[in-house]
Design goal:
6 strands; 6-stranded mixed sheet; 129 residues; 4 helices; alpha+beta; single chain
Length: 129
């Protein structure tokens, strides 16, 4: 393909798909332009992130998402904690953590962490009630 030809558009179509990365189940679903990767906890999201391929492979994946006008969202307990691809807008937190061009959603991380802590407290109360 020459530099003047346009890149073929990507499309993601999936029903229910579950991946397992380092013992962590990742539920995957998609809409027309978004790929959602759901995990149970912030700790699980970090375990998956640590197992991702090196910079060259990650850069290629992000580039392909952007060229295809797609966005991947990592979600924990229904809260978006990171975004990569077309809609990602990395800020100071992303640059400081060294994950740019991905965007870290600090409020999502805090909310998901709080949700996990609240769920653990509820389980403990039921055990000792």
């Amino acid at each position: 393909m020459s530099g003047t030809e346009s890149h073929a558009a990507l499309a993601v179509e999936t029903d229910d798909l579950t991946l397992s990365v380092d013992g962590v189940d990742v539920s995957v679903h998609a809409t027309e332009r978004r790929l959602f990767l759901e995990v149970e906890s912030v700790g699980d999201a970090l375990r998956v992130a640590r197992r991702l391929p090196g910079d060259a492979a990650s850069d290629l994946a992000v580039r392909e998402l952007r060229l295809g006008d797609l966005t991947a969202e990592v979600r924990v307990r229904g809260r978006t904690v990171a975004i990569a691809g077309a809609d990602a807008r990395p800020g100071p937190v992303s640059h400081r953590l060294g994950v740019a061009p991905a965007e870290v959603r600090f409020a999502g991380v805090v909310g998901a962490g709080y949700g996990g802590l609240s769920a653990a407290v509820r389980r403990a109360r039921r055990l000792f009630a």
